[in-house]
Design a protein that fits this description.
This protein is mainly beta. Helices cover 6% and strands 55% of the residues. The protein has helices spanning 96-99, 196-199, 219-226, and strands at residues 5-12, 15-19, 31-35, 39-46, 50-58, 61-69, 76-86, 91-95, 105-109, 116-123, 134-143, 151-164, 167-171, 177-183, 191-194, 203-207, 214-217, 233-241, 246-247, 256-262, 271-287. Strands 9, 11, 12, 13, 14, 15, 16, 18, 20 and 21 form a 10-stranded mixed beta sheet that branches. Mean pLDDT is 80; it is low at 1-51.
Length: 288
């Protein structure tokens, strides 16, 4: 990021000596000397969002130094800090505060395949995606009931992201890798599922103009990963995405989380970890 600085240096030096003769011969001539010290002023200016100015004065010499930081506008923010869950028929909005406290988002289970999360993103003013950018995303669902071992985790790597006028486009190429891991509440039925072919060639377009809602369809992928058996209870949810500078409505960056998804039932050290900005909250499953 370049900092455009304009620096000007002004140096003024004046010295005046005047001598005046007396009106008689009774004594030596009176002499008056007036001296003005050198005055140096240094000024530094910049186009900034924050400015700190320090002034130091010595005699009649004043030095002013201004240090600044340019405003970072390369980000997307969540408009009104609100997300919505659409179960396929009814769209219900939730604030982040509601999502982040129990019971969170109420979800009827099993899901309809078209169930989706919707949200509105806005450009901070200078959002930019480098050419060839890819991203990874992950989600974790952990049953919070005492003694429960229920958990579902899934991730996808290698999603391409491109920027168009007023939007970003995510594409899952055939080479992308996606896996899911799940365990029942009693610790049984641990399973790992390859979702790569399920989501291959999927695309999604997300508006960044601040007044158009975007959505992520979750139903089909979750039904494939978990199945449609009866489930209920409250789950702690963590959502993570890499390579996107995401902020809240007040411009505070989203927190950073790490989700580790097992790749082997026999080797617990064989995991894929995704670290990125995201959200953490709760969903409560109720029978449909």
């Amino acid at each position: 990021m370049s900092l455009k600085l304009r620096s000007t240096l002004t140096l003024a030096f004046a010295l005046t000596i005047s001598a005046c003769g007396g009106g008689g011969s009774s004594g030596p001539a009176d002499t008056t000397t007036t001296s003005t010290q050198a005055t140096t002023t240094t000024t530094t200016t910049a186009t900034t969002d924050t400015t700190t100015t320090t002034t130091v004065a010595t005699g009649t010499t004043t030095t002013t130094t201004t240090s600044s930081t340019l405003l970072n506008t390369n980000y997307l923010y969540l408009v009104d800090d609100t997300i919505s869950f659409n179960d396929g028929f009814l769209n219900t909005p939730y604030t982040l505060a509601q999502f982040q406290s129990v019971p969170g988002i109420t979800v009827k289970w099993p899901l309809f395949d078209i169930a989706a999360l919707s949200f509105t993103l806005a450009d901070g003013g200078g959002f930019n995606i480098p050419a060839g950018q890819t991203l990874s995303a992950a989600a974790s669902f952990v049953d919070v009931a005492a003694g429960s071992q229920g958990v579902v985790k899934l991730y996808v790597n290698g999603v391409t992201i491109t920027q168009q006028s007023g939007s970003i486009v995510l594409t899952v190429p055939a080479a992308a890798v996606a896996w899911a891991y799940g365990v029942a509440t009693d610790g049984s039925g641990a399973a790992i599922t390859n979702l790569s072919s399920t989501i291959s060639n999927a695309t999604g377009t997300f508006s960044t103009v601040g007044n158009v809602s975007s959505q992520i369809v979750l139903g089909s992928a979750l039904n494939s990963a978990i199945g449609t058996t009866s489930m209920s209870g409250t789950y702690k949810v963590t959502l993570v995405v890499t390579s996107l500078p995401l902020r809240k409505a007040d411009q505070t960056p989203l927190s950073t989380y790490t989700i580790s998804v097992p790749k082997s039932l026999a080797d617990t050290s064989n995991v894929t970890s995704i670290t990125g900005m995201g959200l953490e909250g709760y969903i409560t499953l109720v029978p449909r």
